[in-house]
Amino acid sequence: MSEIAQVDVFTEARLRQLVADVLQEAANQGATSAEVDVAVNKGFTVMVRMGDVETVEYNQDKVIDITVYFGKRSGSASLSDVRPVAIRSAVQAACNIARFTDEDEYSGLADISQLAFNYPPTDLFYPWDLSVTQAIELGLECEAIALAKDKRITNSEGVSVATIEVVHAHGNSLGFIGSCPVTRHEISCVLIAKKGDDMQRDYSYTVACDANSLDSITKVAEAAATRTVQRLGGKRLPTGRMPVIFAAEEARGLLGHFVSAIQGGSLYRKSSFLLDHLGKRVFPAHIQMDERPYLAKSLGSSPFDDDGVATRPNVFIKDGVLNSYSLSVYSARKLGLETTGNAGGVHNLFINTGDKDLPALLKKMGKGLLVTEMMGNGVNLVTGDYSRGVSGFWIENGEIQYPVSEITIAGKLQDMYANLVEVGNDVDKRGNIQTGSILLEEMTVAGE
After folding, report:
1. Alpha carbon distance 154, 352 (integer Å)
2. Is residue 44 situated within a structural domain?
3. What is the Cα–Cα distance from 264 to 401, expressed in whole angstroms?
4. How far is C-alpha 423 from the chain's CA centre?
5. Residue 45 lies in a domain
6. Among candidates 62, 264, 309, 301, which has minimal Cα distance to 171?
7. What is the pLDDT of residue 416?
8. 425 with 356: CB under 8 angstroms?
9. Residue (of 123, 241, 260, 142) closest to 191 by Cα position
10. Domain for residue 281, yes or no?
11. Disulfide: which of 173, 225, 385, 434 matches 380 by Cβ 3.0-4.6 Å?
């Protein structure tokens, strides 16, 4: 084993060598094939609250995941110690497991033709030249702006400023070794407002690969203050059926259930309400949904998946019809299909938008509920049953009338997707799923 595994690992070159070392060790111990995944990260997070520094956390972690194969038998082990003796011991443990497990005809590496040997360069690594002292100053300034915005802002749950650098490498015994460096920077502000006996909490945040793409601390602070104050005086609604708009950041979760339902693991376990729906209509005909894995500075981008398979711009929904599942090598084999390069999930999922921003979407709805926050996890992916606690705003004549809270919305995801009226152009770009606000034709709202 080379000396490279004895030093602190962070650069791409060192990680790639470490992967090669582990693969060689697996071969030395008799494995017929193996794959290795390594992730190393370093960074810090500062938290300030009410003018004081609450915490400063540094992190520098390594995780090595090893899977070895003896024919169709497999065994896995994880470790964070990169010393040769530790790697040797972990590989031995994985080999011992593999020798005594049952054969699985679907296990094994991807076909060599599917691997990302010629993956495109990534544009995701933008280290932030920020000291802890500067991060603290940013956090204190952000909080001060937020507290001064409105006299009803009486308290803060804190402002956090975080920066992290991650280098991920994946390799297997077919000769593929790939690496991908990524940065992630975030500023968030959480506030508490009070009016009489009513107290409400809300937040705002900004996140990006490149610190130059972050919103200003003034924008974050003022958005957090506005959102928090707007929630004061919340009422309950009468129980009934009505149109519902999911604000963009909550619409992301609504589409996230769709992503979970088309994942191979859910399908071969027969635990998805979209089982056997390939080629069938799921959304209205005007809806398209695709992934774009190579976008620069996008948090969901990746040139290869967790199997080392080349990612690609899959189209999942075409004219409302389910065009493709989201499959890893293993799940594809279980289903008798081909991998879609989605081991580990989708990469930058987009839904097509209409020409209306949120105010225009409210006008189109006229009367109904705008959901801005959801609580609980009442979603059954087997049946599609959906029930969540929510808060938001009551809309009449296309305008916000008052905040609402302590209510529940319910429906079936199949019906909710089929009755999607329009997607707003107010796209929230802060996550792996990028969507605008979503107007649904009707849902059950349980209140008074």
Report:
1. 40
2. no
3. 43
4. 20
5. no
6. 309
7. 97
8. yes
9. 142
10. yes
11. 385
Q: How far apart are CA 90 and CA 66, in angstroms?
A: 8
Cα-based angle 146, 150, 151 (whole degrees, multiple of 5): 115
Dist CA 39 CA 168 (whole Å): 4
Q: What is the pLDDT of residues 129-168, one digit of tens each?
A: 999 999 999 999 999 999 999 999 999 999 999 999 999 9
Rounded Cα–Cα distance for residues 303 and 295 (Å):
10
pLDDT of residue 272: 97
Instruction: Tell me whether strands 368-379 and 240-246 are parallel, antiparallel or unpaired.
Output: parallel
Distances (CA, A) of 333 to 204, 231, 311, 346: 43, 49, 17, 18
At 273, which amino acid appears? F
Are 239 and 208 contained in the same domain? no
- Residue 69 sits in a domain of what CATH number? 3.30.2290.10
Q: How far apart are CA 104 and CA 433, in angstroms?
A: 33
Q: With left for phi above 0 and alpha for psi between -120 and 50, is residue 398 left, alpha or beta?
A: left
Whether residues 162 and 14 share a domain: the answer is no
Select from 174, 125, 154, 162 the least CA-distant residue to 46: 162
Only one residue has tokens 């909550």, namely 250
- The dihedrals phi and psi of 271, each to the nearest 5 degrees, come to -120, 35
Domain that holds residue 266: 234-448
What percent of the chain stands above pLDDT 70? 98
Provide the pLDDT confidence category of residue 2 given band limits of 50, 70 and 90: very low
Q: Give me the number of domains the chain comprises.
A: 3
The whole-number pLDDT of residue 200 equals 93
Q: Tell me the C-alpha distance between 279 and 317, whole Å.
A: 9
Which helix (H) or strand (E) is 433 found in, with range? Answer: strand 433-434
Angle at 413 between CA 410 and CA 418, to 5 degrees: 115
In tens, the pLDDT along 240-277 reads 999 999 999 999 999 999 999 999 999 999 999 999 99
CA distance 117 to 382: 37
Instruction: Determine the 3-state secondary structure of 345 from DSSP.
Output: coil
Place of tokens 């996550």: 431
d(CA 126, CA 116): 23
Count of CA atoms in the C-beta half-sphere (13 A) of 121: 2
Cα 150 from chain centre? 33
The whole-number pLDDT of residue 10 equals 66
Q: Three-state SS across 55-73? A: EEEEEEEEEEEEEEEECCE
CB 123 within 8 A of CB 306: no
Burial pattern 73-95, b for ≥16 Cβ within 10 A else e, equals bbbebebeebebeebbebbebbb
